[in-house]
UniProtKB/TrEMBL annotation:
Signal peptide: none annotated. This is Ig-like domain-containing protein. Residues 58-152, 157-253 form the Ig-like domain. It comes from Magallana gigas (Pacific oyster). One of its GO terms (cellular component) is neuron projection membrane. GO terms for biological process: synapse organization. Gene3D superfamilies: Immunoglobulins. Keywords: Membrane, Transmembrane, Transmembrane helix. The chain crosses the membrane at residues 27-44. InterPro entries: Ig-like_dom (IPR007110), Ig-like_dom_sf (IPR036179), Ig-like_fold (IPR013783), Ig_I-set (IPR013098), Ig_sub (IPR003599), Ig_sub2 (IPR003598), Ig_V-set (IPR013106), Immunoglobulin_dom (IPR013151).
Length: 305
């Protein structure tokens, strides 16, 4: 009887598969995967064990000024740069009397004029005081909330009373007024012009043109008011302002250099109108009369001769 050698194979629907080779490959892949997982876990644990975590201490930087001067009606801004703030909070307070104004972005003091704005890319927590007044002058503190309360910096705000400037322009001449406003984080939304409390708009019939431009790099907005032919009704006090900041306050006097012969430096009334002195008025009234008598005497002399 012939001897037959049988291999350990199984016949399945998908074909003949060698069992030792199949299970050996699976075992090898499993061992490799478990080894890689073990190495990853061991390395991660080693990194955690070797790492010594040291919390960073907040620091108030001296990169901003400590003394600021503003004019009444403006928005005063005190700049405070804080590094490594983490989970701490910045508090603004007035030194004398000691009053907490803002905590983080929340206004703690019962005055909505005081607000804190966070400039993320500069790590700044700046105190804004809208419509600043003489009573707001004094010393302020920017403080990081810690148990020791030793991370702080002092600032001084000086407030000056607003004084308007005066400009003169001849009647029918071109009047040009300019102003600009800037911000620490973004340019102001708009600039508006007012004349004697009434808003000034561009008008073709009145010859009034208002142009504006914005520079995002310097965070500044400019505005120019042009009156092509200034007339007497254009005299008054012009104010250029943003929604929360008085920028320019100019008193404009229109000089009538024609019939009335109005000159610069003459006396002004309460309404801003200009008047000549008594001597000039007498001369202006006597001049027509003198000319008439000269004409009459000339005619009589010609007839008699």
């Amino acid at each position: 009887m012939d001897n037959y050698r049988f291999s350990r194979t199984f016949l399945s629907d998908s074909g003949c598969v060698s069992c030792p080779r199949r299970w050996g490959l699976r075992l090898w892949v499993t061992v490799l995967a478990v080894s890689m997982l073990f190495c990853q876990v061991a390395g991660f644990r080693r990194r955690i064990t070797d790492r010594t975590y040291v919390p960073l201490t907040p620091i108030i930087l001296n990169t901003t000024a400590s003394n600021y001067t503003y004019v009444t009606g403006e928005t005063a801004i005190l700049y405070c740069a804080v590094e490594n703030l983490g989970t701490k909070t910045v508090t603004w307070r007035r030194a004398n009397p000691s009053v907490i104004l803002t905590v983080g972005l929340y206004t703690y003091f019962g005055d909505s004029r005081f607000q804190t704005q966070n400039v993320l890319h500069k790590d700044q927590w700046n105190l804004h005081i809208r419509n600043v007044s003489l009573d707001d002058q004094g010393r302020y503190e920017c403080q990081v909330s810690t148990k020791a309360r030793d991370i702080r910096r002092s600032f001084y705000l000086n407030v000056k009373e607003h004084t308007s400037s005066t400009t003169y322009v001849e009647k029918n001449q071109r009047l040009v007024l300019r102003c600009n406003a800037s911000s620490d984080s973004y340019p102001q939304d708009d600039l508006d012009w007012f004349m004697n409390g009434h808003k000034v708009e561009s008008s073709d019939t009145e010859g009034i043109t208002i142009t504006k431009s914005v520079a995002y790099r310097s965070q500044t907005i400019w505005s120019e008011l042009v009156i092509a032919h200034a007339r007497m009704q254009h005299a008054g006090t012009y104010i250029c302002r943003t929604s929360d900041k008085l920028v320019t306050n100019i008193k404009v006097n229109i000089l009538n250099a024609g019939k009335d012969n109005v000159k610069r430096g003459t006396e002004k009334s309460d309404k801003g109108l200009l008047f000549e002195d008594t001597k000039s008025q007498k001369e202006s009234y006597s001049s027509p009369l003198t000319g008439s008598w000269t004409l009459i005497f000339g005619i009589i002399f010609c007839v008699l001769s």
